[in-house]
């Protein structure tokens, strides 16, 4: 393959990636929290970028609550333990509520909904819902990592002296473990972001800490949305 063909292929993947509304939202999220980190919560250009990007992102999330609502009422995967099913449904319910209330917040911030005090109250309730969904995700990822770890140990015993990295099933389980670990890091840091936005611990979780954690989780989300072919090329 020539350099031009390789460039075309890479650009085609980039176009495919940027065509996703979710990918554009996460890129804007990185800009939002990067600006929050730079501003340190103080008035200025960076804070203006933070606020304007936050409002713009809400447009990407219009009617997105339907996705989690659909998952909530759909039957769970077969073989899933009851505690994981309950955690998963709780996560879907909380995230769907957050996304629905976020639309009301958007209407309030743009002037469509005139009650400012109620808009701020709804904003806080929505953030608590998001924090709750992130906590549920963290518990789910911990449980799934424990299950995958048990499966890996079982496979290692079965393979004995054979090269475990040559076994496709072992490699798939290892990849699942890595993906789950990354999701665990993301959801744990998102809890910190929610605490910062709600100002539950203003002395410890400052705007700068909130911005740093939000920026990192945004980059993780951007990576998770990459096509599988692009991920395989990442060193």
UniProtKB/TrEMBL annotation:
GO terms for molecular function: identical protein binding. One of its GO terms (cellular component) is peroxisomal membrane. The keyword S-adenosyl-L-methionine does not apply. It comes from Phoenix dactylifera. It is a multi-pass membrane protein. This is Peroxisomal membrane protein 11D-like. One of its GO terms (biological process) is regulation of peroxisome size. Belongs to the peroxin-11 family. It is found in: Peroxisome membrane. The lineage of its organism: Eukaryota, Viridiplantae, Streptophyta, Embryophyta, Tracheophyta. Involved in peroxisomal proliferation. Keywords: Coiled coil, Membrane, Peroxisome, Peroxisome biogenesis. Its main location: membrane. Residues 145-172 form a coiled coil.
